[in-house]
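User: Structure with FE2/S2 (inorganic) cluster, tokens only please.
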Amino acid sequence: MDLERLEGILGRFDGLPADLIPVLQEIQDSYNYLPKEELNIVAQRLNVPLSQIYSVATFFKMFSLLPKGKHVCRVCVGTTCHLKGGQRLAESVGHRLGVDIGYTTKDMNFTLETVGCLGSCAQAPVMMIDDTYFARVTVDKVPKIIKQYQK
Ligand code: FES
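Assistant:
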């Protein structure tokens, strides 16, 4: 456990139960997931039951209890994207990366997720890698997109 890093995060807050979500956000941003040992300390310091922390951590999609890859690839399978091949696109990305949807590659470079809607339905099918949008993605464009993020 990286206690110094955690203390740096906790030190920016008042230590109140109301700080829970912002503290979890900072831990997520810093570690790329919510490590178990760190959550135990957060529970003590904010005086929030661990069960409540896990309930928050599993409710919000922005939190992950498992380490995520360096790049997070989100493929939209919302209604519009689904109708335009979103699911097939997600499977194609998974095939290219050699990972199932919801999982992280062995080299920790990519996590592949599907999402309900990325808010760009007019450009369906849509996918994102980190903060970059890719619009009207066809299966044949996948290798070129992925290549930009490979080590
Ligand atoms: S359904 Fe895919 S961006 Fe809205």
